[in-house]
Each structure stands twice: as structure tokens, then as C-alpha cells.
Amino acid sequence: MADIPIRHIEPEQDTEALQKVAREVAKILTPNEEILYVALQNVTALSIRKDAVVITNNRVIMFSPRIMGRVTFKDYLWQDVINVTMKQGMLSTQLVVETSAGKEETGAVDKEQAKRLYGFAQQLEQEWREKRRIREMEEARARAGGVYMGAMPGTPMPTAAAAEDPMAKLSKAKAMFEQNLISEQEYEALKAKVLAEF
After folding, report:
1. All domains in the chain, ordered by first residue
2. Running DSSP on this structure, what letter comes out for residue 41?
3. For residue range 144-188, what is the model confidence (pLDDT) as tens digits?
4. Half-sphere exposure at residue 54, Cβ-oriented, CA atoms within 13 angstroms
5. 117, 53 in Cβ contact below 8 A?
6. What DSSP assignment string belongs to 10-25?
7. DSSP code, position 53
8. How far is CA 58 from the centre of its chain?
9. The whole model's pTM is what?
């Protein structure tokens, strides 16, 4: 049976155990979804069938094998994840996934694997926060009637605004920044362009 691709594997991880998890998880992946990392339950856990936490580019998946080959999945889309935290113990670590619906704690995950998984989770959280921020800014711009400043990349400047007073342009840019319609970088770029026109 062909191995399921896992983007990151640590040399000390049990590749056979990883592939068992990956084969089951692959059955529920969506198109263009890939497994980034699998953290296995610590060897000290008392259960015969070991749980795992799987990070994909779309979600966090809690994997729990059951008797007679059955598997339970709990998954949380990154767009809904508010925070991922770690509770480190002497021999193992618990990961806590917080969403708008509540919190979910994992079983006893291997400490080193939990740290690696946590790093991936922080990176993906940050990427999704930025996506949400951009979407919120675009929605706010649309509600504001699509104000044109002419300095934003790819935004055509209406001809009536060409004769606008530089002070009025600066005031408009500042107002847009204060209303979170543009980012600080966009505001600074607009300000620099208007000042260069003097």
C-alpha cells in the first residue's frame, strides 16, 4: 500500500504508526487538503489504540481509533479556531483547541511532537487571522461605498479626485485608517504619495 504524503515527519517518529493514522485521515480530506503534521499520543498513555492530532492546511483533526477498526474524528476548521494552547506535563502534553463553539483538549501527546504541532498551529492561526482581517477590511470598504484614494495598488483614481487638495487627501486617508478601512502600511503609502506631490 502506498504511503500517504505527510509534509513534515520527525526522524524519531514511528512512520508505521503515522501511516496508519494518515491512511484513515486521507479518507476524509477535501480536494487540495494536505496533511502537514501528525502528533501521536505518548507511549505512556494507557490506551491500546493511540490517539493522534493531525494538522492539515484546512483544519485540526482529533483522531481516535476505536474497537473493531472504527475511528472517531473531531475536526476544527482553521477559520473557526480562535487559539491553540499547550499544557505541558512531566511526560506528555495536552493541546487545547479553542473555537467560537468552545474548547477541545487532546489526550496525552508526545511532548516533542506536541511542540512541533503547536508551532504549525501558531503559523496557521496567524495566516487565518490575516485572512479574516483582510476580509473584514474589504467588507468595511464595500459598506463605506468603495472610497477611492488612488494610491492603493490596482485601484483606479477617478478623474474628479485628481484635482483634490492634498490636505483633503491626507484627511481622507487618515479617516479611512481610523475606521480600519485600510491598513497602517496602506495609510503610510498614501501619506507618502500625497506628500511627494507637494
Report:
1. 15-139 (2.30.29.30), 145-196 (no CATH)
2. B
3. 765 555 445 555 544 444 456 778 888 888 888 787 778 888 878
4. 32
5. yes
6. -TTS-HHHHHHHHHHH
7. E
8. 8
9. 0.65
